[in-house]
Amino acid sequence: MNAPLRKAGVVILVLFALLFANLNWVQGYKADDYRTSDYNRRVTVAEYERPRGIIEAGGQPLANNKATDGELKFQRVYPEKEVYAPIIGYKPVSNAETGIERSEDEFLAGTSDQLIGDRLSDMFTGENTGGGNVVLTVKPRAQEVAWKEMTGNDRGVKRGAAVAIDPRTGAVQAMVSMPSYDPNPLASHDEKTFAAAFKKLNADKEQPLLNRATSATLPPGSTMKVIISAAALQAGKTQQDELAAGQSYTPPGSGAPIRNAEDETCPGAQTTFKQALTESCNTAYARLGVELGAEKVKKAAQDFGFGQQDLTVGDLEGDGLTVAASETGAMANPDGGTDQAALAQSSIGQRDVRMTPLLGAMIAATVANDGKQMRPYLVQQLLDSERRPVRNASPKVLRTPINAQVAGDLREMMISVVENGTGRRAKISGFEVGGKTGTAQNAENKPPHGWFIGFAFNEKGEAVSASCVMLENVEGGHASAVAAEISGKIMRAAADRGGD
Q1: pLDDT value of position 22
Q2: Rg, C-alpha atoms of the chain
Q3: Distances 357 to 37, 48, 278, 363 between C-alpha atoms, Å
Q4: What distance in Å separates the CA atoms of residue 128 and residue 52, rounded to the nearest whole number?
Q5: Burial of 116 (0-12, 13-18, 19+ CB in 10 A)
Q6: What is the pLDDT of residue 500?
Q7: Pairing between β-strand 60-67 and β-strand 320-322 as defined by DSSP bridges
Q8: Residues of the chain with pLDDT under 70
Q9: How far apart are the C-alpha atoms of 359 and 374, rounded to whole Å?
């Protein structure tokens, strides 16, 4: 055999070897990737051979299915439309799920290892047993009241969020974000319908796809005074200690004075600690923050959850809706020293302080729960296709930022806010309510945000609900009063006492 033929033979053998190796790579190593790829139409068709599990709350289906005559046998349906969309999310044919549909996807689809018994049974029976069912912690009455009150607020505010949780467990009782959206077109089997709906929502400047309860971080205004109060109580102050106040305070090194919201708020040179929170005295809290120092202020905020980057709210195993990190800001000069003006402004929830509504509810819940902050969760129970329990939620303590003594003192101070101060509109007949209002300045020439964080105890002395309501850019003054009233109604509904 001459040299050219030998060379050609070697090349052919090498090519066959490469082809054989590639075939084994595809069949042995990449088979699962190709089989489960979103681009594999057979995978999508197979997924829709069995009904997806139901997502429900209080016995009410929030995500269900209807049979179709098409290639995909079941259509995902969301009967409550906008009301639960920020929690439930949606399940598009493209498999780019969001919300609980994403975090519990394998269980809902029936492919989870927790449902291996159903899959083994299907192998013998030839059936396509439906996916598992997810039971949420949300109380439908509380959710409905939250949605109604938020979207029908008397100031015409179009953007905001409301969260209510059980202080004793961390179970989410209600979570509303507005504006919201109808997830049904996003679950359509028609690609054009999905694309048009998503394009419209994604281009909307009001950001209806954003869950403001977990992902909006805005200046919290005077609700930050709860954190400052906790730091001061831990440092040894008592409710009756005198604080320097006055109508105006200029922090060291700053020419910009801090004033109270109204001239009649703590006009004297001094006021008691408890009265300062009751009236929401800016000058007293700005001075108090400077007295405590930046490190103590930031440490107290971090102890309550500021700065946490990995928090989710869904199941207690760590899967769920991602929660944006709340931040205090640096409060530092370029040389690394404390910027006293920034510290003073941060102590009243301005400057660079940013907080999510979820964390606001968690802070109020911590005070109500003797200083223990429970991990928030949305998934109460997982059921198989026959509605047999697979897993139940077991509440977990996330952190303990304050002891029971500090929590008790702070609870009394916050009750005074509702009984005698700025939070009167949060009162609920038959309940003991505490809280803190917040009016936060933001963009220049824009109305302020209105906040309220609070808790409610029933006649047995049980902490039955803690909530946070945030309304963006409230026209007409007293922005936080609107939030306080809505918060009270949500907590009343969460305690199963109605809501109208």
Answers
A1: 66
A2: 27
A3: 37, 37, 21, 10
A4: 11
A5: exposed
A6: 40
A7: unpaired
A8: 1-11, 14-43, 119, 121-126, 497-500
A9: 11
Token pair belonging to 224: 């930050």
Q: Please say whether the beta carbons of 62 and 55 come within 8 A.
A: yes
Residue 391 CA to residue 473 CA, distance in Å, equals 42
Kindly write down the DSSP assignment for every residue of 198-238, as one continuous string: HHHHHH-TT-TTS-HHHH--B--GGGGHHHHHHHHHHTT--
| CA separation for the pair 393, 381 (Å, rounded) | 6
Which pLDDT score is estimated for 28? 56
Measured CA to CA, the distance from residue 264 to residue 267 in angstroms comes to: 6
Bond preceding residue 334 cis, omega within 30 of 0: no
What are the tokens at 66?
């209807």
Instruction: Give every CB contact of residue 26 below 8 A, 6+ residues apart in sequence.
Output: 34
Identity of the residue numbered 57: A
Q: Measure CA 69 to chain center.
A: 38
In this prediction, residue 24 carries a pLDDT of 64
Catalytic residue numbers read: 222
User: Tokens for 233?
Assistant: 């109580």
Q: For the chain, what percentages of helix, strand and coil (3-state, to nearest 5) are there?
A: 40, 20, 40
pLDDT in tens, 201-211: 999 999 999 99
Give the distance, in angstroms, between the CA of residue 458 and the centroid of all CA atoms in the same chain. Answer: 25
Could you tell me which residues are beta bridge partners of residue 133?
383
Tokens 């911590």 belong to residue: 366
Name the residue among 320, 316, 338 with its Cα closest to residue 329. Answer: 338
Chain centre to alpha carbon of residue 56: 19
Q: What is the pLDDT of residues 28-71, one digit of tens each?
A: 555 555 455 554 456 678 788 889 999 999 999 999 999 999 89
Phi, psi of 425 (to 5 degrees): -75, -5
Rounded Cα distance, 492 and 216, in Å: 25
* 3-state DSSP assignment of residue 164: strand
Rounded to the nearest 5°, which phi and psi values hold at 161? -155, 155
